[in-house]
Design goal:
Radius of gyration: 34 Å
Low-confidence stretches: 389-396
Number of strands: 20
Number of domains: 4
Distance between the termini: 21 Å
Helix content: 40-55%
Strand content: 15-25%
Mean pLDDT: 81
Length: 798
C-alpha cells in the first residue's frame, strides 16, 4: 500500500505541468462560480438591507396641484392607509459661478427632517437644511467639489441667489451622479417658499399601506386617487415601491441574467475540462495500471489511487480559486454598490459561494472522474500492456476517410498530419471543441449584446430629430413663442407642445373613480422631430380628432386594448373620451412619466385653451459647441421675457446618460467573457499536453528518422491552430443564433422591449485572431515538451 501511495506523490510532483494544468482547469470553473455566486450574495442582501433601512414608501404620488394638511388628514383615514408623509420636489437650475451655464437640478423639501417617516434621508455631514441654507446630495458634492460652507447660485424669479451649503445628505433613490442624474438639493419649508411653493402645501405624497402587497398597494392608491378626484385634484404620476427589493434590482437583473448564463457555462466547461484531463491521464497510464494489477493491485485500490489524485487536484484548485474569487467579489460588490448609492462598509464572506466552490472543486471532479477511472481500473493486464496510447488513427469512419481523402488532394503535408493526430482521440477532440466553442460563443454573444445595446440606443435617439428640449414652468402663448424663435439664427425648425397632468380612465370607470396617472402631450402628428417606437396600432394622423397613443405597459396594467375608448380627466380643464389608436414603448434607464400622446389641435379644441409649455428645437448644425451656445442663448432670451424655464436637455446629454449607464455593465461582461476565453485556452493546452505525453513513443520514432525540433514544435502548434479554427467555424453561426435570443431576453429584463439586434461582425474577426493567438500560446508549452523528448527517453517511456 505504501508503494502505491508513493507512486501517487511521485506522479503529482514529477509531472508538475500536468498537475498544474489539472488544478488550473478545475480552478477556472470554481473561480467563476464562486465569483458570480458570491457577487450576487453580496449585492442583493446588502442593497435590500439598505433599502429597508430607509423605510421606503409603498406608493409615491405627484399631484396636479398642492394640497394642505386638512386634505392629508382626510386621506390618512382611508381604509388600508398606514400613513402619509408629504413632501415637495421641484425642478430648479443652478450653477457654481456666474460665468458657468445653468445646470438642471432637483430641489426637495421634507416637512420635518428630524421626524421623517418614509424614504428617509440620511445626513452625512453638517446640519439639516434650514432657512437660507441648503443641503446637497453627498455624491454630487464630491463630484462638484463642494464642501459645507460653499455657496451655490440658484435661478429664482427675476434674480439669482447664492445659498450656502450647510450639510451633505444621502438620498437613497438616486444613483451615482456619474450616471447623469440631476443634482439633488434639499431645503426646509422656508427655503422652498423662495421657489414659489407656499409653506404648508405639498404636491407629492409618500404612502404606506397595511398590510403590504403590491395588489393591496394599488388598491389603496386607487382609493386615494378617488378621494383626491372628488376634491378636483388629479394625480399626475404614480410609482410603486417594493419595500423589500432595492429600486435598482430591475436594472441589475439584465446583468445578472448574463452572469448566470456565464456561471452555468463555467460549470459545464469545468466539468468538461475535468473529464478531459482525467480521461487523458487514465489513457496515458493504462500500461501502468496493467503493471499494478500484475503485482496484485485490486479494482478498489486502483480507483482510490486515482480518485485521491483527483481530490488533490481539487484541493489545489480550491486553494487557487477561493482567495481570488473572494477578492474579486469584494472589489466588484463595492463597485456596484457604490454606483447605486449604497454604503459598503465591510466585505462579508458568502457561505453559499464557499459551499458552491467546495462542491465544484472537490465533489464534482470526483463524480466526473468516476467513469474514466472505473473504465481504466477494470482493464485487464493483457489489454493494458498491449496499449501504447496512440489511438486508432484515421480511417475508422466515413467522416475520417473523407477528411483523409480531401486532405491528400488539397492540404499540405503538415496540415494533413495535424488533422490526423487531432482525430486519434475523437472523444477528447469533441470535449476540447466543446470548451473552445463555448468560450467563443459566449465572447461573441457578449460583444453582440454590446453592439445591440448601442444600436438600440442610437435607434431610440434617432427618433429624437431635435437638438434641444425646453420645458417651461408655466404655460406660454404660442404666437409669442413662435415669433421670438423665428428671429433666431441657427434654428431650422421648432415645435411647441402642450402638456398637462391627466388621469387615464378606462371604459366603465366614472370620472371621479381612480385611474392611471399620466401626462397628456399635445403634439404635431405629422412632425418628424419626435415619434416614439410604435409596437402596436399606429401613430397619430393629422386628420385624427380625439385619438391617443398610450404606453403599452400602462395599457396592459389597466386592461386597455386598441380601439378602446378611454377618458382623460384633466382636472379643471375637463374630461373627454378619446380612442386608443396605438401603443408605444420607450427605451429608458430611469423612471419616466407615462405620456399619453394626442394631436395638439384636438387638445386645444377639447380644452378651449391654446397655450404651450414644451419646446423642441432643431438646429442647422448638431455640433456640440453650437448646440451648447444656442441652448444658453435660448435660456437668456426666455429669462429676459420672464418666461421661467423649468429644465433644458439636449440629445447629446441623453446619449451621454445612456453611455454612463451601460459603461457600468459592458466591461463586467467583457471580463467574464475573457475569463471564459482563458478557460478555452487552458482546455486546449491541457489537451495538447496530454497528446504529447501519449505520443512520446511516436515522437521518439520521428526523432529517430531525423525530425528536427522546429518540425516537432510546428506540428503541435499547427494542431492547436487547427483546433482553434474549427471551434471558430462552429462558434460564429452558433453565437449568431443564440445571441438573438439572449439580446431579446436582456432587452425585456432591462427595458421591457426587445433590443435592436446587431451581430458584432468585427468581434468575429477579433475572435478569429484571438483564437489563433490562444491556440499558439496554448501550444507552446506542449510543443516545447515534445521538442525536448529524446529517442532514449521515448524508448524508456512506459
Amino acid at each position: 500500500m505504501g508503494v502505491i501511495w508513493d507512486k501517487l506523490w511521485f506522479e503529482l510532483w514529477h509531472h508538475k505541468v500536468r498537475t498544474a494544468l489539472a488544478a488550473l482547469s478545475i480552478s477556472i470553473g470554481v473561480l467563476s462560480l464562486g465569483f458570480i455566486v458570491g457577487l450576487m450574495d453580496q449585492l442583493t442582501p446588502t442593497w435590500n438591507q439598505a433599502h429597508r433601512a430607509v423605510v421606503p414608501a409603498h406608493v409615491y404620488m405627484r399631484l396636479s396641484q398642492p394640497v394642505a394638511e386638512d386634505t392629508l388628514h382626510a386621506l390618512r383615514r382611508i381604509d388600508g392607509v398606514a400613513g402619509i408623509e408629504p413632501l415637495n420636489e421641484v425642478a430648479i437650475r443652478y450653477r457654481l459661478t456666474p460665468d458657468e451655464p445653468w445646470q438642471n437640478g432637483v430641489l426637495m423639501m421634507r416637512e420635518d427632517y428630524a421626524e421623517q417617516q418614509y424614504s428617509m434621508l440620511q445626513r452625512k455631514s453638517g446640519a439639516w437644511p434650514h432657512r437660507d441654507a441648503v443641503g446637497i446630495d453627498y455624491r454630487t458634492a464630491d463630484l462638484l467639489g463642494l464642501q459645507v460652507g460653499d455657496r451655490v447660485l440658484f435661478e429664482l424669479d427675476g434674480t439669482d441667489r447664492a445659498l450656502p451649503v450647510n450639510g451633505t445628505i444621502r438620498y437613497h433613490f438616486i444613483a451615482s451622479p456619474e450616471f447623469g442624474f440631476d443634482a439633488h438639493f434639499f431645503v426646509d419649508a422656508q427655503g422652498m417658499e423662495r421657489f414659489g411653493v407656499h409653506d404648508g402645501t405639498f404636491q407629492q405624497l409618500m404612502i404606506q399601506v397595511t398590510p403590504y402587497s403590491e395588489e393591496h398597494a394599488r388598491s389603496v392608491a386607487s382609493a386615494v386617487k378617488d378621494r383626491l378626484s372628488s376634491l378636483g385634484i388629479s394625480v399626475g404620476i404614480t410609482h410603486y415601491n417594493d419595500p423589500d427589493e432595492h429600486w435598482a434590482q430591475e436594472f441589475f437583473d439584465g446583468l445578472a441574467l448574463v452572469m448566470h448564463i456565464l456561471a452555468v457555462a463555467a460549470l459545464l466547461l469545468s466539468v468538461v475540462l475535468i473529464y478531459n484531463t482525467l480521461t487523458a491521464l487514465i489513457t496515458q497510464e493504462t500500461n501502468q495500471i496493467g503493471i499494478l494489477k500484475a503485482i496484485g493491485a485490486r479494482l478498489g485500490m486502483i480507483m482510490r489511487l486515482y480518485l485521491a489524485g483527483v481530490l488533490i487536484y481539487g484541493v489545489l484548485a480550491l486553494l487557487i480559486a477561493l482567495p481570488l474569487s473572494t477578492f474579486l467579489t469584494c472589489v466588484m460588490a463595492g463597485y456596484f454598490l457604490d454606483i447605486f448609492n449604497v454604503t459598503y462598509a465591510t466585505c462579508q464572506g458568502s457561505p453559499r459561494a464557499l459551499v458552491v466552490q467546495i462542491v465544484a472543486a472537490l465533489v464534482v471532479p470526483l463524480l466526473v472522474a468516476l467513469w474514466p477511472v472505473l473504465n481504466g481500473a477494470r482493464i485487464t493486464v493483457r489489454q493494458a500492456i498491449a496499449s501504447y496510447g496512440l489511438g486508432d488513427g484515421m480511417g475508422g469512419i466515413w467522416f475520417e476517410r473523407t477528411i483523409d481523402r480531401l486532405g491528400g488532394h488539397w492540404l499540405p503535408a503538415p496540415m494533413q498530419m495535424a488533422i490526423s493526430t487531432m482525430m486519434r482521440r475523437k472523444s477528447r477532440l469533441v470535449l476540447t471543441q466543446i470548451v473552445l466553442v463555448t468560450a467563443g460563443t459566449l465572447y461573441l454573444i457578449v460583444m453582440t449584446l454590446s453592439s445591440s445595446i448601442d444600436l438600440s440606443v442610437e435607434t431610440e435617439l434617432a427618433r429624437r430629430d431635435y437638438h434641444v428640449q425646453v420645458a417651461f414652468a408655466d404655460d406660454q402663448r404660442i404666437d409669442q413663442l413662435e415669433t421670438l424663435l423665428a428671429t433666431q439664427p441657427h434654428i431650422r425648425q421648432t415645435e411647441a407642445w402642450f402638456s398637462h397632468p391627466a388621469t387615464l380612465l378606462r371604459a366603465g370607470q366614472a370620472t371621479k373613480e381612480a385611474g392611471a396617472g399620466t401626462i397628456l402631450m399635445g403634439v404635431i402628428p405629422d412632425s418628424d422631430l419626435y415619434r416614439p417606437r410604435i409596437v402596436a396600432g399606429r401613430w397619430l394622423l393629422p386628420e385624427d380628432d380625439r385619438a391617443v397613443v398610450l404606453n403599452e405597459a400602462t395599457a396592459e396594467e389597466n386592461g386597455i386594448h386598441l380601439g378602446d375608448m378611454v377618458t382623460l380627466d384633466l382636472g379643471d380643464l375637463g374630461d373627454e373620451r378619446w380612442q386608443v389608436v396605438g401603443f408605444y414603448r420607450v427605451l429608458s434607464v430611469q423612471p419616466e412619466p407615462e405620456h399619453v400622446y394626442a394631436p395638439r389641435a384636438a387638445v386645444f379644441r377639447t380644452t378651449t385653451r391654446y397655450p404651450v409649455n414644451h419646446l423642441l428645437v432643431q438646429l442647422h448644425s448638431g455640433d456640440p459647441a453650437v448646440v451648447d451656445t444656442m441652448t444658453r442663448r435660448l435660456e437668456t432670451l426666455f429669462e429676459q421675457r420672464h418666461w421661467d424655464v423649468a429644465a433644458t436637455r439636449t440629445v447629446a446629454e441623453d446619449r451621454q446618460f445612456f453611455a454612463n449607464f451601460f459603461d457600468q455593465y459592458i466591461p463586467m461582461l467583457l471580463v467574464l467573457a475573457v475569463m471564459t476565453a482563458f478557460v478555452g485556452g487552458i482546455g486546449l493546452m491541457g489537451a495538447l499536453s496530454m497528446s504529447v505525453l501519449e505520443r512520446t513513443r511516436e515522437i521518439g520514432v520521428l526523432r529517430a528518422i531525423g525530425a528536427q525540433t522546429p518540425h516537432l514544435m510546428g506540428m503541435l502548434i499547427l494542431e492547436g491552430i487547427v483546433q482553434g479554427l474549427v471551434s471558430w467555424l462552429v462558434a460564429v453561426p452558433l453565437s449568431f443564433v443564440v445571441g438573438r435570443y439572449v439580446a431579446a431576453l436582456m432587452g425585456q429584463v432591462l427595458f421591457a422591449v426587445d433590443l435592436e439586434y446587431q451581430y458584432h461582425t468585427w468581434a468575429v474577426l477579433f475572435w478569429l485572431m484571438a483564437v489563433v493567438v490562444i491556440a499558439v500560446l496554448a501550444s507552446v508549452v506542449p510543443a516545447r515538451s515534445a521538442a525536448r523528448i529524446s529517442v532514449r527517453q521515448s524508448l524508456a517511456y512506459v
